[in-house]
Amino acid sequence: DQAAAPAPQGDPLGMAGASCMQEMVLSVSSEDDSAHLWELRTATTLVSYRPAASDGALATVGQDLFAVPQPAKASLHVFGWRKDQPHARCALPEKLTALAASADGAFMLGGGATGGVYLWEAPSGAMLRTWEAHYRAVTSLAFTDDGTHALSGSEDSLLRAWPLAQILDYASGQQAPPTASHTWNLHTLPVTAVVVGAGGCGARVCSASMDRTVRVWHITTGACLAVAQVPSPVTALALHPCDETLFAGGSDGDIYAMDLVAPVPSNTGTPSLVRAQHFHGHTGAISSLTTSFDGSMLVSASRDGTAKVWDCASGQALKTFTGHRGPVSCVRAMLRPPNLLDGPHIKVKTPFSLLARRCELEDATSSYFA
């Protein structure tokens, strides 16, 4: 199972894989209470973290940290890459069902089963805002790459875009809930995944739903740019780093790659995405997807207890990671964290404080951990 796979056609020297030698994958299980950091190309585990169970919510915070909300209680465990035990344990207002962090690690966004969303400033731990963003549980959260907007999807079938400047605006003294710049309501069943492409406030947003559709939206105009029908309810999404391909994982265990460059006109007026590749190999629902830095590989997590590494060009499974003893709920591909193997004595450089439980800046904790 761990034997090296042959090089994809057109790459006889295996150079596509060589570019990923310094890439890692962080995987989390919902049942075995562990997270594993493993090499993308060899599927070799480097570090295991406990307790780190998660139902699918996971966020990397800056270069040094990742955060995992606990599925059974209102608590968030924050880990540094070099230590297998939590650096911090944060008590939360409620159990989180979704989590995201801005690219610079300055802000963290959490969503709960009540439909509420919480915004924290990670370096100070201050809860900056909380509001009722949805009518039912929040299922997915994301930031644009420039940090100007936050996106939220929910079981209420709605997808919403939130300008971060409005959320943070206290100058007027108004404490009214923030207003979404766009509310997209074309999905007919719960939204299950949201991903955002490159381009900041001009980026494309992709959403998946249990209604077996994937939709592409423009974050500025609010227009629906394209739609795709998938054979089963869609449970996970990932974007190619160049925004040229969208990967959708289904409850049937299959993954579908769709071309974002040239959607096909349709009778409905909304262009349709063409399926360009089909990945088959999992026996359980797909729970999470992520791509390698150069987009040549796709990593999938499944309820069957495995994570697989795929060659995007051929659809061939290259590796299978079997280090978890339960369903794999989330995967994140990343470049090798700095000073990963320098030892637990190295201090964490990313500023982070215990997250406050109340939306009052003066009550936020300010003690840093190392």
What report would you give on this structure?
With 370 residues, the protein is mainly beta. The strands form seven sheets. The protein has a four-stranded antiparallel β-sheet, with no helix packed on it. A four-stranded antiparallel β-sheet has the order 4-5-6-7, with no helix packed on it. A four-stranded antiparallel β-sheet has the order 8-9-10-11, with no helix packed on it. The chain has helices at residues 15-18, 164-168; strands at 23-29, 35-39, 45-49, 59-61, 65-69, 75-80, 88-91, 96-101, 107-112, 116-121, 127-132, 138-143, 149-154, 159-163, 182-184, 191-196, 204-209, 213-218, 224-229, 234-239, 245-250, 255-264, 272-279, 286-291, 297-302, 307-311, 317-321, 328-335.
- Spatial gap, N to C terminus: 39 Å
Overall average pLDDT: 87
The largest sheet is:
4 strands, antiparallel
Overall spatial form: globular
Q: Kindly provide the radius of gyration, computed on alpha-carbon positions and rounded to a whole number of angstroms.
A: 20 Å
